[in-house]
Amino acid sequence: DRALRRVDEATADLRDDILQREAVEQQLRRREEELVGFAGVVAHDLRSPLSNVVGYAEMIGLVDDDNLTSKQQGYLGKVRTSAGRMQELIDDLLAYATADNTTLRISEIDMVELVESIVAERRVSAPDATIDCEPLPSVQGDPSQIRQVLDNLIGNAIKYTPENQAATITITAADDAADPDLCRIDVADRGIGIPESQLAEVFNAFTRAEGSEHYPGTGLGLAIVQRIVERHNGTVGVTQNTGGGTRFWFTLPKTTASVRVPKNEPEED
Ligand code: ADP
């Protein structure tokens, strides 16, 4: 009897613990949502004053460049670079804050076409890059959001390749081993790589791996990638690329039936 009572008590304690932990987790999630919402509002409000700074700095450079001393030109250059970084951060913050609450408009995406158009845009800043892309299948998703996912990954692969080395990027696709309804897309590069111990953390917002200090960045791109992919019912991951560099991957539904429509969104026809 006593033993049974002890088991009952232990079970009740365990249940209390679980309930308590669930309550704390829910509270943390709510706090995170509030913080992200707040960051979104701030980013939105900073956008127009900052574009004034960028615009006027641009104008001084265009109109008054001849009247500036070289010292003043140096200062102006610093204003432009810093304002440009701030714009990048604000755009990333906004994308991060809205990634969860914009309505998904799901349609069939021709991945080859999408990759080609991203590569064409990226070519401007990385003319020497070798970008191999095997025939990719079509997937289901929101075209502008999936574009952002691929653009962030391809952009990182180019950015985190040292300047004296031409970027080598390989994009491949295969059925997901765990779920036949999903297609897995890999973006592999031969850049600076990520230390093994930090691989698990790079998807966290504002987290940057050791070795990336010399490259501009906000630490938000991969957090945006993860949010978007998870909203599509997919998963993301990263490993070291055999032979050096990094291999990022994400999965996406192959059919509309396997796309998760979030609870607060009406199902699209
Ligand atoms: P950002 O590039 O703006 O810092 P991300 O969220 O896109 O932010 O990436 C987070 C971190 O992950 C980067 O700071 C960098 O340390 C690492 N990282 C991302 N992609 C790569 C890559 N292709 N090669 C090496 N490191 C990478």
From TrEMBL:
E.C. designation(s): 2.7.13.3
Keyword Acetylation attributed: no
Cell compartment(s), UniProt: Cell membrane
A GO BP annotation: osmosensory signaling via phosphorelay pathway
Enzyme class, UniProt record, top EC level: transferase
GO molecular function per UniProt: ATP binding; phosphorelay response regulator activity; phosphorelay sensor kinase activity; protein kinase activator activity
Keyword Transferase appears in the UniProt entry: yes
Gene Ontology CC annotation, any one: plasma membrane
Histidine kinase domain residues: 41-256
Keywords: ATP-binding, Kinase, Nucleotide-binding, Phosphoprotein, Transferase, Two-component regulatory system
Catalytic reaction equation(s): ATP + protein L-histidine = ADP + protein N-phospho-L-histidine
Record's protein name: Sensor-like histidine kinase SenX3
The organism of origin for this protein: Actinoplanes lutulentus
Source taxonomy: Bacteria, Bacillati, Actinomycetota, Actinomycetes, Micromonosporales
